[in-house]
Amino acid sequence: MKLFKKKTKKQQAAQARRQRRSHLEAQGEVPLWSKNNIIPAAIFLAYMGLILITCFFGQSPAGPQLLPNQTPKFRIVADFPFSYESKIERERLTEERKQRVAPIYKLDLEPFDAFREKILILNQGMSHLKTQVGPPAESLSEIEAFTDEFNTKYKMDISPNDVKTLLKLNTKTRTHYIEEALAYENEIYRAGISSNKLKTSSLNPSFISIEIKGRDVEGNVQTTEEALLSLRRYLKIMDVDPEVSMALFRILKGGIRQNLIYDAARTEATIKDAANSIDAIIIRVNEGETLIEPGTPITPEQHERLTAYRKALRTHQEYGIGFSALLLERITLTLAILLASLIYIRLGVPEIQSSRKNLILASSMLLINMIFIRLLLQCGDAYLIPLNPMFATLLPYLAPVALAP
After folding, report:
1. CB of 137 within 8 A of CB of 241?
2. What is the pLDDT of residues 328-366, one digit of tens each?
3. How far apart are CA 173 and CA 261, in angstroms?
């Protein structure tokens, strides 16, 4: 009986301690450093650390978000000198260099070489014909037969009357005139004959680059019409009878054709070389220099400068391990808010503490919402806003709290 009485006394003592602890908790007189307070305090500090890391760690301290073409109502001034690499200025200079690159054409001389060979064969044929027939006036049928055969064989369009006119000259004189006219036509070919839709430089349409067997030369490029007029003027100033001059022009004008071929591959390679030759453009900003003016739309250059300033400001205020003055301020403010909330819950709504399940669920959902919001902000700053500034207006509506009922 004594054994049962002893156990009963122990049970009564434990029950008395539990009742006394419950009474002390209800009266708020539990010792501060008791085991029952240390564990919740550690959980509270760990939860506060998660909130700080989720919301503030690595955040830029540069103030409100500003977008290009937005009109600010305040002025932003650089608190310290800094420098940055300007991608906008480099792209602008690259575009100017691209426009200065003249399109490149290859000069095709093969058509003239083939045409010259046919004219020389025609001259040799006329010399042979003159030795076999009589005067041109008496041998028109032979001339027509010779011309038809030549046109059929070499795919030319030579008139028998022009051949008859040239046969009036002796062989030496006729050969001299033909070779001199072909030499001038060769000069026209080597200078270049283009169509009316020739690609030229955007900044200087009168300049083009022509490649001749691997060499770039400058020349007076002419259109087909201009080349024909040039050939006709040259034949007129030759010491020759006008009838012979017109006959030579009608024969040689068949060799005037476009011989400039646009080299797209080499032009593109030249443009890339010009763009790659541009070094990085470094812009230096002095202390006290105005970055954003109130009442003036923000230009892309100002937005780039402000973004660079924000990065420099974060680096400038860091203490070496990622903690900045602003982050320490936020830690203090967060601790004060959480302590005030804890005091309010313990004094104002103590029934919340009795449901551990609801307390864990509420704190977990709050932390998950903060994580999603931080991810949205990070993705927006890194990818969406640089791609399209309009995404900045959509980010608040993508947050989980905005989608909640």
Report:
1. no
2. 777 787 778 777 777 776 776 666 666 677 777 777 877
3. 36
Rounded Cα–Cα distance for residues 230 and 232 (Å): 5
- The secondary element (H helix, E strand) that includes residue 76 is strand 76-77
Tell me what the pLDDT averaged over the chain comes to.
76
Collapsing DSSP states into helix, strand and coil, what is residue 245?
helix
Reported as a single tens digit per residue, the pLDDT across 68-118 is 888 888 888 888 888 988 888 888 888 888 887 777 788 888 889 999 999
One-letter identity of residue 363: S
Beta-carbon contacts of residue 310 (< 8 Å; ≥ 6 apart): 60, 61, 62
Q: Would you say 223 and 193 are in contact if contact means Cβ atoms under 8 Å apart?
A: yes
Angstrom distance (rounded) from CA 244 to CA 169? 9
Q: Could you tell me which of 351, 352, 350 has the C-alpha nearest to residue 363?
A: 352
Helical pair 242-252 and 224-237, crossing angle rounded to 10 deg: 150
As to burial, measured by CB atoms within 10 angstroms (0-12 exposed, 13-18 middle, 19+ buried), residue 166 is buried
Model confidence over 159-213: pLDDT tens digits?
999 988 898 888 899 999 999 999 999 988 888 888 766 655 554 555 555 555 4
Q: Are the C-beta atoms of residues 292 and 72 closer than 8 Å to each other? A: yes
CA distance 131 to 210: 45
Instruction: Categorise residue 382: left if φ over 0, alpha if ψ from -120 to 50, beta otherwise.
Output: alpha
Which two structure tokens, joined as six digits, stand for 34?
Answer: 């008791």
Q: Which residue has the tokens 């032979």?
A: 142
3-state secondary structure of 291: strand
Give phi and psi for 36, each to the nearest 5: -70, -20
57 is written with which tokens? 């760690």
Direct distance between the N- and C-terminal alpha carbons of the chain, in angstroms, rounded to an integer: 65
Cα–Cα distances (Å) from 180 to 87, 165, 302, 346, in that order, read 58, 17, 65, 112
Q: Which whole-number Å values give the CA distances from 321 to 57, 312, 344, in the listed order? A: 11, 16, 35
Cα 62 to chain centroid, rounded: 28
